[in-house]
Specification:
mainly alpha
Length: about 190
């Protein structure tokens, strides 16, 4: 089953509409969608290694734009939806402490968590909810998301064929390692 899914993803990655799918996923993942753009960026860069940096640029621009939407969600809808729930459970003062911490360390939170497998939407919504400086948030998002996607693209540009061979020979191992990485990201978020 994994081999069929992998083969199908590789075919989609080489399609003429792949750029739009990549941009859509990168945008949505930064604000509300659970699947990271790497799920399409990696197969696209493997299918066309010479285009890897272009794909990274698409991911970066779309992810930062989606981050602006996530920020807006945290800024505008948080009070109507999340704050009443926090108050109901007695976490209002804990949230106030969180806002203060985000104001103090928000730049570092955006920079560090934007590079990790922790879902970026959590950072974007939290930044809006904490009313973190929007310009600083956007600059940090460009830096961190760009660094992440261009690092992946550069590795795949130079080592694409050997990466593809490794993935195809050890598909179960690769998907398991990816799942562990995502789960580790969620655990890190919980305890950091």
């Amino acid at each position: 089953m994994l081999k069929k899914l992998y083969a199908r993803t590789m075919v989609l990655a080489a399609s003429p509409h792949a750029d739009w799918w990549l941009a859509s996923i990168a945008f949505a993942e930064s604000s509300f969608f659970p699947i990271p753009p790497d799920a399409l960026l990696i197969p696209m860069a493997l299918a066309r290694p010479r285009m890897a940096w272009r794909f990274a640029a698409i991911c970066t621009v779309a992810s930062v734009a989606g981050g602006a939407l996530g920020y807006a969600i945290g800024l505008t809808v948080f009070d109507q939806i999340a704050r009443p729930i926090l108050n109901l459970y007695g976490y209002g003062s804990a949230y106030a402490a969180f806002q203060a911490k985000f104001q103090e360390y928000g730049l570092w939170i955006v920079l560090i968590k934007g590079l990790t497998p922790i879902p970026y939407k959590i950072v974007t919504i939290a930044a809006g909810a904490a009313k973190f400086d929007f310009r600083l948030f956007m600059m940090a998002s460009v830096l961190t998301r760009g660094a992440r996607f261009f690092l992946v693209a550069t590795l795949l540009h130079f080592y694409g064929n050997s990466v593809r061979d490794f993935i195809e020979k050890r598909l179960t191992l690769v998907t398991s390692a990816l799942a562990v990485g995502v789960a580790g990201g969620f655990l890190a978020l919980k305890y950091l």
